[in-house]
Each structure stands twice: as C-alpha cells, then as structure tokens.
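INTERNAL AUDIT FORM
Audit reference: QA-55
Scope: verify that the stored structure record matches its stored sequence.
Auditor: D.O.
Record contents follow.
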Amino acid sequence: MKRRHLIRYAQASLLASLGMGVASGLQVYRAQTSSPKQSQKAASGGSLSIQWLGHTCFLFTGEGKRILVNPFRTVGCTARYRLPKVASDLVMISSQLLDEGFIEAVPGNPRLLYEAGLYQFKGMPIQGIGIDHDRNNGRRFGNNVAWRWTQSGIRIVHLGGAAGPIVLEQKILMGRPDVLLIPVGGGPKAYNAQEAKQTIQALNPRLVIPTHYRTQAADPAACEIAPLDEFLSLMEGTSVRRVQSDTVTLKASDLPEQGPQTMVMSYRF
C-alpha cells in the first residue's frame, strides 16, 4: 500500500540523512539532540490564524509559516469532511492512523514531523511529546504525539488523539498553553469528556479548542465517538465562545487573562 510505503520511506530517511524527500514530496525532519535554549526567542507580535479543517486537523498561519496538523482520510468519523488539501510549509501528524496521519493528499513540498522529539523549523522550536493513544499503555493503538510550539507569540499545544493520562514529565514539557487543542469525544483512542476536563485542569490553558468529536461528517455505521454536548455540559460555569466560522485570528493580547475559555469553531459543510 502506498501509505505504508511512504511511512517506511520516512523512517529510513530519518536514519539516512536530514531532509530527504519522500514519495509525496514531503520531507522528514530529524529530532535534534542539542539544547533548545539558543532558539527559544519567539516573535511576540503579529497575529495567528487558526483554521479548522475537520476532526483534529487545523492549519496555523503566522510569522510567515503555515503549519498543518493531522490531515486525515475521509472515512468513518471524517467521512463527510473535505480532504484537507491546503498549502503548508510544515506538516505534523500525531500518529500514522488514517484519521490523523493521511499525508498522500497534502499538496506541495512541506516538511513532515511524525515522531516525538525536539525539532527546529525556520528558527522555531517544536516539541513532540509522546502520549499513549489508548487506555492500555499504547498496546492497542500505539503512541500518539502531542505537539507544542510558539507561533506569533502564542503558546500552542495540540494533543492529537491522546488517550493516556498526562504524567508529570509530559506536563513539564507542555508548560501552560495559551491555546490547547484537546480531543473530547472519547472512543477507544482519545479522551472522553471527563478525561478531557481532567487534562484541562492539569494544564490550565487560557483557551481550549475541543477536537475529535462527532459531527454531521460522521458515517453513522462507522463512528463511535460522542458529540460535543457532553463536554460542554461538564465545562458548565466556564466561558464558552462560539465562532460562526472555521477560521479565527488571534493575537496574544486577545487571549483571556483567566482561563480556561472554550472556543467552539464551525465547519463549513
């Protein structure tokens, strides 16, 4: 299968040399082992555009960089979304599963990150943090990679399809996010509403964007995740902001001083 070949090629590229092109034109980055301190100066001005492309897939645009996280194949819970065929400079995937690691349809020649580790992209430090992708120590669905980076002065943590609890070491690596993207719909390989709430309490972000929940995109016969309502009910008493668009533009100064505020974005079906 082309997808398995692509991932194998990517893994071989990591061992062979930095930045070798893979079959679809994506290029793989190797995790660095040097200290990140030299490159931690982040831009504090400007704005960050966040576009929701369905499920856990988002495009982040700011500082002249376009970062695409978790492109998917349209099947099961993502069946009626559009393929996220958008231009990007960097693609980060949380796993090699089809709902968050389908990279064949990605256009152009972006870079690809898919493993936990510390990376540099155009002077921007990026941390990939491994978390179990199920509640059985990763024995069923393996490892999920959460991504942490700062763009346009905003500290972002995208948890991908995390299902395992956040332990102290992971919490230290994540810090306190300005924006936390967190799965809330449950199923066998992502947080349910209660687990998501506990993780939010642990990380104390300023802004929460829920992901990985059931929408009208789902194939009713092949989607076992829950809709957003249960999570919002558990977050009762906190601020909820509904955006009537799939895209929002933020500045660091726009973020709530006291969190967490939940922001629900809209998909343009």
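Auditor finding: record pair retrieved intact. The radius of gyration is 17 Å.
Action required: none
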